[in-house]
Design brief:
There is one protein chain. The protein is an alpha/beta fold. Helices cover 34% and strands 16% of the residues. The chain has seven helices and five strands. The chain has helices at residues 18-24, 30-36, 66-78, 87-91, 103-110, 143-154, 167-172; strands at 7-12, 38-41, 54-60, 79-85, 134-136. The protein has a five-stranded parallel beta sheet. The protein is globular. It starts with 6 loop residues before the first strand and ends with a helix.
Length: 173
Amino acid sequence: MSADRPTLAVWKFASCDGCQLTILNCEDELIPLAGAVQIAYFPEATRGVVAGPYDVSLVEGSVTTPHDAERIREIRRMSGTLVTIGACATSGGIQALRNFADVAEFRSIVYAHPEYLDTLAHSTAIADHVPVDFELRGCPISKAQLLEVLGAFLRGRRPNIPTYSVCLECKRR
């Protein structure tokens, strides 16, 4: 971690921004967190940018373009710990529905000039492109789990997050 405060970066790929909004909705919890870390990159929250490397990077969204694939490799190189947040980042999300159809046909129907688009054949999870240190699942992610993950990595311990679906809790009762 950095000498002063650990640096935190939040990155967006193809997604609805719901997981980033969950971070911003931490409200009271976010204020002490902001004092404990240096928010180095988080365009949804601030215009300020601090150059990497970053101690912890949170990544929302799936990889859908060649530029995305290149960008996530660069983010991985600059990040000590990389955490994917949400269904899009951990499994491709709603964008992955296109994986079961002809992307070229979609482009020709939806866009007036599809020749200007550069997309991959499939929308994929971040872990399909780079090693990921932790995945926080959900759509959107759980506020409590997000705070546990951030706190754990900032304190140098493994997050205490259930490894099972929330659906199992009712079945166990």
